[in-house]
Write a structure and sequence with these properties.
Number of helices: 16
Bound molecules: flavin-adenine dinucleotide
Radius of gyration: 22 Å
Structural class: alpha+beta
Distance between the termini: 70 Å
Shape: globular
Helix content: 40-55%
CATH class of the largest domain: Mainly Alpha
Strand order of the largest sheet: 1-4-5-8
CATH superfamily of the largest domain: Butyryl-CoA Dehydrogenase, subunit A, domain 3
């Protein structure tokens, strides 16, 4: 059994030479060569540091990336090195990261996604649970302690918005919260598709005082060991290593100190998290695309058919370069968004004013919409360009291909993004004074 675990695949299908060229180190090198003229030294150095950590971790722990591995076991090691999230400096929990912000987070994601895309996806959900606590900890020790546990990899976190009967229509929730005399709440209802739900020590959940009334929503921090919190795993075959939850909240009592936003505050808190969430998904999608392009570029430069490297055939080369060009352009756009976001956060003392954050909603939706589509196309086409090698279990291409199938649903579907954008365009039209 131990012997079997050492191999990364069931049967080797790709020849030794090409398989070794597809190593994590070489894929990082391809990425870095692409980015070296684009990134600032600070960003590039952080990227390389994170890459070095991933390469060492993979080697030292003999990581195979096969389905029998538990990606959740790796979280503490990444947490100890500060690779769970770099969105904030986290001074209030004494992490004091020197390198932080949306651009650095982009770099972190690139490194982690190349190492293992499913691990990166699970990590992204923890970040979504950390963000609302960061915004609303009010210096309360218990909230800070929980945030630290998640940020340092002691436990993953999850965010519970979606319900079995309320997906896209997230503001008309059915899960109820009843305020008690002592300021605590009692929650009842069901949540679903919560990434990391069954593995998380803590989750952030939304409920409503009156069903279907978005104005009465509230936001809660929940300890999953409390009585009344029941969770089953929802299995998504595209991401077999990621655990998603279906939660039943049954007379779950939430003490006052765990109420991050009382009745009436929930919707605002939900929307506040949407810009970073959608940008986070866009970053993940772009990282998946680079991983896929790195695989395909290395493969097409080495694989020979008809006595030629397949890259030299127009059908392969022109398709691959079309994808590469579109990905580079999108990366530049997203990078600019991240830098702009960082400079605004800095200008306003660590927190974006509500009107600026709202102005970014359309951009965040545009990026989420476009990168999810791009990921579905690039991961599929890149795998295709590798023929059987892109579909077998010898490389991470099959993970990327499968993950690219969920990108358009998570964080709001394609239709919801375009719906949001239609309304934003209407507003912009009116603002233009035409
Ligand atoms: C892998 C994965 C991870 C996830 N992680 C989380 C998580 O961590 N936390 C969480 O809370 N949720 C999570 N979700 C849930 C996700 O956000 C929802 O699945 C998504 O919002 C869609 O909701 P739904 O599945 O109920 O689909 P529905 O809302 O029922 O949509 C079904 C179809 O109808 C379309 N549709 C719906 N309304 C409209 C409309 N007004 N106009 C046009 N088309 C419309 C949709 O685009 C979709 O194609 C996750 C889902 C997946 C698959």
């Amino acid at each position: 059994m131990a012997e079997e675990k050492k191999t990364k695949y069931l049967t080797q299908a790709i020849n030794d030479e090409i398989l070794s060229k597809l190593s994590l180190k070489n894929r990082y090198q391809f990425l870095n060569t692409n980015l070296m003229t684009i990134l600032e030294p600070k960003e590039f150095n952080f990227l390389k540091k994170a890459q070095k950590f991933c390469m060492r971790f993979e080697k030292k722990n003999n990581i195979t990336h096969r389905t029998d591995e538990d990606v959740y076991e790796w979280i503490p090691a990444f947490g100890a090195e500060g690779y769970i999230t770099r969105t904030h400096p986290f001074e209030m929990i004494d992490l004091n990261y020197e390198d932080y912000g949306a651009t650095i987070e982009f770099m972190r994601c690139l490194a982690i996604d190349f190492f293992d895309p499913q691990f990166s996806l699970a990590g992204g959900a923890t970040v979504l649970a950390i963000n609302p606590i960061y915004e609303h900890h009010e210096n309360m020790p218990l909230r800070l302690e929980i945030m630290k546990k998640m940020a340092t990899g002691e436990t993953p976190g999850a965010i519970l918005i979606t319900e079995p009967e309320r997906g896209s229509d997230a503001v008309h929730m059915l899960t109820t919260c009843d305020e008690q005399e002592d300021g605590s709440f009692v929650l009842n209802g069901e949540k679903i598709y919560s990434t990391n739900g069954p593995k998380s020590g803590y989750v952030v959940a939304y409920a409503t005082a009156e069903q279907n009334n978005g104005n009465t929503m509230a936001q809660f921090l929940i300890d999953t060991s409390w009585e009344g919190f029941n969770c089953e795993r929802v299995y998504i075959p595209y991401v077999p290593k990621v655990w998603l939850g279906k939660e039943r909240l049954e007379n779950l009592r939430v003490p006052k100190e765990y109420v991050l936003g009382g009745v009436g505050k929930g919707r605002e808190h939900l929307f506040e998290g949407l810009v970073p969430e959608r940008i986070g998904i866009a970053i993940d999608c772009v990282a998946q695309c680079w991983n896929a392009i790195a695989h395909a570029a290395i493969y097409a430069n080495n694989r020979k058919q008809f006595d030629q490297e397949i890259l030299k055939f127009q059908g392969v080369g022109f398709l691959l370069t079309d994808l590469w060009a579109r990905l580079t352009n999108t990366t530049l756009g997203l990078l600019m968004f991240c830098k702009n976001y960082d400079s605004k956060v800095e200008k306003f003392g660590g927190k974006l004013p509500k009107n600026i954050s709202q102005a970014m909603v359309a951009s965040a939706s545009q990026f989420k919409y476009y990168t999810a589509k791009l990921s579905a196309e690039i991961c599929y086409e890149a795998a295709n360009l590798m023929g059987g090698a892109g579909l077998c279990d010898n490389t991470l291409m099959q993970d990327l291909l499968q993950m690219s199938r969920i990108a358009e649903i998570i964080g709001g579907s394609r239709q919801i993004q375009t719906y949001i954008l239609s309304m934003a365009m209407r507003q912009l039209y009116k603002m233009s004074g035409i």
